[in-house]
Each structure stands twice: as structure tokens, then as C-alpha cells.
Amino acid sequence: MTYQELIKSLKNKEYKPVYFLHGDEAYYIDKVSNYLEKSVLSEGERAFNQLVLYGKDTDAKSLIDTASRYPMMAPHQLVVLKEAQDMRSLNDLQLYIEKAVPTTILVICFKYKKFDKRTKFAKAIVKHAVVFESKKLYDNKMPDWIQTYLKGKKLQIEPAATALIAEYLGTDLSKVANELDKLSINLPAGTMVNPALVQEHIGISKDYNVFELQNALGSRNIPKAQRIVNYFISNPKNNPLVVVVSTLYNFFSKVYIAHSLRGSSDRELSTALGLRSDFFLKDYKQAMRNFNKPRTEKVIAVLREYDLKSKGVDNVSTPPGELMRELVLKILMG
Fold it and tell me: Spelled out in words, what is the top-level CATH class assigned to the domain 139-201?
């Protein structure tokens, strides 16, 4: 069941006795569980019929006792088990899952890791519960997600601003949604969000970010690259070396792929590189002109070397800032 299908059924009050929400991405698990907490019972009914438990603080017996009770002056009882992955006796819920009390809605939130589908508990879940898996989004899906989220807030966004947010905030949907909400709160409906507005309301510098460093390196703009690195060194918490290396590795890996696809159309190249549109293709074409295939291979090797150094391999005392300066110099001069 998809998130949209699940929310639609909940809005129609098509409740089931057990919901099992699991997956690597916490955002949609929290959205579903929060929706249930706010919508199943009225404010007056919640005092006696709604309970939130945490996996590390409860056990299967206590949870079964609670879920087996009948509601008081309400059609349902809602029991939410959060952080179920921390509950040692989780598998002992099997018998309850198989014969769940119909007037209880039990919501099990299992986050950040996969559960063992080979167990009898898992088989009971699949057979008797509503199962929803919240999967991590890939990097190349983030621009579309950002655009869709803001569309729901009645805002539009320029491709450059979308790329800036995606590059800077990554794929943590809870974090991204929280920052996008700042835009919806501060901007009137219908606004076209540009990089300047992102800088003003989210705090991501439109001039000093890893996305701009990537483009400065691709265009071999040495002064600009040096200015950005100096800014990063003076703001290490916002621009950790490991994130910079990872982003640059992703960029130059795509440049290498593009070299292997010379002669392809722009649309074919954009698809192969996982780009949402041809808008960003110019950056890769520019990098291809400045870094031929052998040189791109050397850059990738340097990035691998500094990825290890950033994690302490063959590096005892060089601070992250100096490593970043060395890395950018080697890319530009190598």
C-alpha cells in the first residue's frame, strides 16, 4: 500500500486492527502515525482511549494487555508503539496480531532498519495487518519531491533553487520538509522560489555551497573555488569534508559516465545521468570540456584517497580544512 492509498483509507475511516509501518525513511512513518493520533478519536475520547508507548520502555505482555482492553465511550481504542525496533520481545506479539481485538487500532512503528521477514511474527504481520513500507528516496528523486511538496503549499520553484536545496539538505525528508515549511510560512501563495529566497529563508548560501563548488571545479574557476573552500573552512559544521567529498565524487562519476556516452542526445544523456531535466546538463558538458576522460579518472582516484583520509586512513594529524584545501588544489591542478 502506498502512502497516498493509506491516507485515503484513513480519511474514509476504513480502520484496521493492526498497522505495521516500517522502513528506512522515518518521514512517512511519522506522517501516518501522527495522522492517526490526531484523527481517529475526538479530543474528549483521547484521554481514556489513546496511548503512545515506546519500544525500549515496554514489553510484549504489557502491550498485549493494553491492546486487549475495550474502549470507554468511544468506537475505538488507539495504541501506538513507537520505536518498535528497540522492543526486544516484539516477536511475542505474534499471537495478538493473529487474533487482534477489532475495536483496538494498534499502530507499530518500526524505523531505520529492515525487520526479519522470515519470522512467524513477520508472516503474521503480512497476513493480518496493513503493512506500509517507507523507503529512502534516491538523490535523483529529490528535486521532483521538493517540487511536489512546494506545489502542495502553492509555491513554485526554479530548477537552480531545487538543486541547491537537494544538494545541501540531502535525502532526509523530515529535515527537507521542515526547511521547505519555512518557505511556505514566509512566502505568499504563487511565489516562484529562487536561490535568493532559499538563502534568505532557509539559510543556504546561494554563493557558498557544495553545489557552487562543484560548478567552480567543473568550469576550472580557480578564484571562485578558493573563495568557497575558504568559506567552508570557516564554517566547518555546515560544510563537513565527508559531505563535500561525497557530492564531488557523485558529480565527477557522472562526468565519467558522460564521457562514455559521447554522441548521445541531450535527452539520452540526461536520462543516463539521472537528471530531472536538461537544465543541469550544461554543467556536466562544461566539466567534460575541462576534464577529459583520463583526467576525470584521476579526479575520481583523488576523491577516493581523500574520502579515506577524511575518515582517518593514512592521516594522523591533518585537520579537515587543510585536507579540503589540498583536495580542491589537486583536482584543479592535477
Answer: mainly alpha
